[in-house]
Amino acid sequence: MNLGLTTTLTDTDFADAKQRVTDALADQGFGILTEIDVQATLKKKLDEDMEPYTILGACNPTLAHQALGVQPQIGMLLPCNVVVRADTSDTTGRSLIVEAMNPDLMVSVTGEAGLEPVAAQASELLGNAIAALAGN
Question: How far is the C-alpha of 131 from the C-alpha of 102, rounded, in Å?
Answer without folding.
Answer: 14
